[in-house]
């Protein structure tokens, strides 16, 4: 399973020093460096912590020689022609891959690259970008399903463009040379333009399918969000959601899938389960709030309502993986999200006086959302509170294990889920009903708003973890939970602390939730005073 941890070095305690045994079963990189490997999967933590590329683990059939000098200096996959170009610094490629003795995901059948540079960016997406944007969860949507579609040139170009732009943004934040960042950025734009042209040609020739359209929409969403064009990213997501709703509305039963098992494509369905799940996670109230210039606002939560409104998942006694725990938590969250046509007042969130760049009215956003959730009947839900209590019980063993050295590889995903569950509990019970403390109570008193204290404490610990990325990730993590505190917690000191945590994770983006924008909004809400409220946004 992808969620399992590794005990690594603990099984080798106090053995006498000998030639080679300590690194005999380690990753390729650690063996080449002749250092002890912790054998964490899929990449060892020793390499990750020291900024090296983990070479992975040889298969059982491999019989490497005692000495492997070719591994000490990783081989570049660039062609000699590219290596000898007059200005190599103007055409940087991703980090070189290790020698081909490593057991990795193979290249999808039928994928042909224009040149070695495109190949390098493709490998970077498969081995780095796909892992990063998966937020600590199973990345198979990105490094399996999406990559299998790369036999279509437009999809391959979108993948390559996203990898190049991700590299450009990362290097920019790290203060890399402008020339390197610019080259990655220019290559990303070039490939993105080629991809869009290819998609238009496919549509014109009737060669597109709903599956390819949805994969394209996901990649375009990632690219445009990375590039800072949120409006265009939102437009593509909305179009994709409308496409799915239209497809499944007539026979939703044919698109049903078992959410608690490993997801994947079914021969009987035109849309892969993983694609449906990805767009269910985007089909949220926040998508409605971010839509503008609409005579009729889009309804949220339609995919879930069409497929699973009649299926209530029974929480087991314990979860085996974070993926399973996530499915059950999302079932609870989606059931308490508003559905149906939003109130007309939601359209008032946008200031349309400036046609060029209408602005979201952040000042009135909390009140508008409170009214929406209240009209949907989300208030003091005892059933939801009971379900969340059962979920926490079932999740406790995974959470406790993730807090140990052996379970460190699960830490980011496990703590993120725990924070989301606590935030959902605030929705069910409200800030005021979670305790009897008056407005303005001291934030130092843990009896005042204990759930908020827990969210903030765990968030600080999560952000400090070396595996927590201050970059773009596809799914929602903890930014909305902290935004909820900034908007709606009656305690000013706790609002300040939430803003401080958000500042510490800049420039992280979780889908369309930008930590920088959240900080600016939080500071504006802080100036409004401490109006006590009973609802919060889970979007």
UniProtKB/TrEMBL annotation:
Q: Where is this region: Disordered?
A: 1-25, 79-101
Bias (Pro residues): 89-99
In its keyword annotation, does this UniProt entry include NADP? no
Entry keyword set: DNA-binding, Metal-binding, Nucleus, Transcription, Transcription regulation, Zinc
Q: Which domain of life is it from?
A: Eukaryota
Q: Which InterPro entries match?
A: Transcr_Regulatory_Proteins (IPR052360), Zn2-C6_fun-type_DNA-bd_sf (IPR036864), Zn2Cys6_DnaBD (IPR001138)
Zn(2)-C6 fungal-type domain location is 26-54
According to the UniProt entry, which residue ranges have a biased composition of type Polar residues?
A: 1-10
Q: Which Pfam families match?
A: Zn_clus
Give residue spans, biased composition: Basic residues: 14-23
Which residue ranges traverse the bilayer? none
| GO molecular function list | DNA binding; DNA-binding transcription factor activity, RNA polymerase II-specific; zinc ion binding
Q: Which PANTHER family match?
A: ASPERCRYPTIN BIOSYNTHESIS CLUSTER-SPECIFIC TRANSCRIPTION REGULATOR ATNN-RELATED, HYPOTHETICAL CONSERVED PROTEIN (EUROFUNG)-RELATED
Protein name from the UniProt record: Zn(2)-C6 fungal-type domain-containing protein
Q: Which organism is it from?
A: Venustampulla echinocandica
What does UniProt list as this organism's lineage? Eukaryota, Fungi, Dikarya, Ascomycota, Pezizomycotina
